[in-house]
Every structure is written in C-alpha cells, then in structure tokens.
Amino acid sequence: MSDKSYLEWPFFEPRHAALERELDAWADAEMRGAHSHGADVDAACRALVRQLGAAGWLRHAVAGVEHGGAGAAIDTRAICLIRETLARHAGLADFAFAMQGLGSGAISLFGSAANRARYLPRVAAGEAIAAFALSEPQAGSDVAAMQCAAVRDGDHYVLNGEKTWISNGGIADFYVVFARSGEGAAPGQTRGARGISAFIVDADTPGFAVAERIDVIAPHPLARLRFTDCRVPAARLVGEPGQGFKVAMATLDVFRTSVAAAALGFARRAFDEALAHCQQRQMFGQRLADFQLTQAKLAQMATGIDAAALLTYRAAWQRDRGERVTKEAAMAKLTATETAQQVIDAAVQIFGGLGVVSEHPVERLYREIRALRIYEGASEVQQLIIARELLGAAPAPPAA
Predict the structure, then answer these.
(1) By the 8 A CB rule, do 52 and 96 touch?
(2) Which residues lie across from 130 on neighbouring strands?
(3) Which of 59, 60, 285, 383 has the most C-beta neighbours closer than 10 Å?
(4) For 233-263, how does the pLDDT look when each residue is reduced to its tens digit (9 = 90+)?
(5) CA distances from 255 to 75, 92, 100, 236, 370 (A)
(6) For residue 31, which of 17, 7, 47, 18 has the smallest C-alpha distance?
(7) DSSP alpha helices (H): ranges in 230-291?
(8) Is the pLDDT of residue 143 over 90?
(9) Residues catalogued as catalytic
C-alpha cells in the first residue's frame, strides 16, 4: 500500500483525509475484480455508475446539496482524491466516476435552475449517465475549429454535425454538446472561440444518433455522434448563447486537475506492485531490489510521483480557494500524466516478461495510462497553455 503521508500536507483538511480512507476501504471491499469487466464494457460501466451512486460517491461529482451534491460547489480536492483512489483500484471505476462529473460539470457550473434540478440529482444517484461532447473529427485540441452548427428556430435550436472521441458515447442518457450558434461572432465567422453555445441533448432526441462505436486499448464506452436536424429546446441551453467556449474551458479547468489525480493513482499502483515484486524476486543469488540499478529506478519513480502529487494538489487547493488555475492545472496534468507513463513503463521493466502478460496489473496500467496524455488536452497542448499564461503575465520588455 502506498505511503499516505501526503494526506497530511497542508493542501488538505481533515475531512479530505477521512474521505480518502473511507473510499479506500470501500473500494478494497467492493472493487475487487472490477478491472476484469469482460467483453461487455457498456454493462460494466453502467453497473459501476449505479454502484458508485448507491454508495454516495457520485455526490462529490455534482454541485448543490439541494441537487444531491456533497456541497454547494464541487470540491476539487475531493474529486481528485476520489479519482486517485479509484484509479489505484480499478481504472474503469475511475472512468465511471470522472465522466459523471465531466459530463454534468457544465450544468453544475452554468446550468439553469430547472436544468440543474432535472439532471443533477439523477447523476448523483447513478440513475442517469452523463457525457461531454466537445471534440470533432477536425476539432480536437483546436476547439476553435468546431463545425457542428446550431441554428435558432423559434423555441428550439437545430443541430447538425458530428462529434467524436466522446466518452460514454452510446450509453449516456444525455450529452452536453457544444455547437457553433453564431451569437457574439463576427459576421461570417466560422472559426474562433466566439459564437459557440452549449446544449443538453437527451439520448432519445430525434435526429441524434450514435454513428460509430470506437474501440481503444483501455476499453471504455467511446463513440462518434451524429446530429441531423436535431431539435433541442432553447431551455436546454447551458450558460449564455455564444458563451460555450467559456463554459467548456471552465468545466475543463475543474476536471483537468482530476486527470492528473487519476494518473497519480495509476502511478502509485504501479509503484506498489514493482516495489513488492523486486523485494521478493530472486536473481543471481540476491533480490532484484539489491541491485543498484533497481534502486535507482525506484528512487526516480518515487520522486516523480511526489513531484506530480505536489503540483496536482496545489492546483486543486488553489481552485478550491477561488483562484484561477489555468496554468497550474496544465502543469499538474502535464507532469502527472507524463510521470505516470514513465513510472508504469519502469514497473513493466522491473517485472520483465510478467509485465507484458495480458491482464497483469502493470500491463493493464500500461494500457490505461496512455490515453491520459491525450484526452482533456494533450501534453503538447498543456505546454502551449503554460507558455501562453507565462507570456501573458510577463512584464513588457523595456523600450530600446
């Protein structure tokens, strides 16, 4: 079991440490075998959402006690600790929790009172599955290249276009969909951050279809979506018309830090597995742990994990204080996901042949970590965000 002294860091309050310990004990009892979800990933994910909801953990993924949430606002440190803990036990459980938060996050932050009351209690109870539909075939990292269109028609908007790489695609009960509606954009503008709006689209809305299911190396529900003259009530707008880019970025600022936390969970599990293995594996008359090369590898792994954890929980703490964390969240996600990839790769190497046996814990982690360096902003995009924030805050050079 990983050293939990980090729970005593000043970023946390006693309630956070208590939350982590309670969840860890629950997951140890309830999540055994959850990583072996068989061929029907959809059914496994639905079951995990129900299980997490029934146990009360999904309350932390939504805002508003009156809507089933754990507090008035989303506690970033709490969702990070939950994601780290679940990721350490079962990657699909972390995914199920995270998507309930990300998929409904825009509603928690910007939804009307009616929409918060309609959707959030069911998300918190695990009775409705949420999804966040932002990416398109030609607009992934470059959100401003979005082409999916929304045209106002009386009391409705009519959506046409596609979304892809949508987690929970095919099993979600509703999707928060971002489309170019034109409000606030310059005449004829078809690119840029202005003129994008966010809408809640129920899965049974006519004109909405799952165009393709997508299989990836760490199985989870993923799909390409199609909208064909899909009529969405204007009352399902999230935030103000034309402010969808702001809605998307604010939502990602909350949950991007939690991606770093999930990476930490994967890294800690890999480190625990490697540390235990090298202390009992005999080679050339001594333990694998007795070799200086192994010790150097363990030292690098442990140091990287602590560095990533410091950045992750600094960002979460700052956001819970009401501070802007665009740069800090990007630093956390970049460092934690890249470090976790290195830690897990080192764990595979320590296990040798066992490390590449299908469904061995470190082999599974090797597949699970890879996507985290891409989704919710690839590592290269995080570097651009960090540099942009630094340059924007830098004082102008003196005149020559």
Answers:
(1) yes
(2) 174
(3) 60
(4) 999 999 999 999 999 988 988 888 999 999 9
(5) 11, 17, 11, 22, 18
(6) 47
(7) 244-280
(8) no
(9) 376
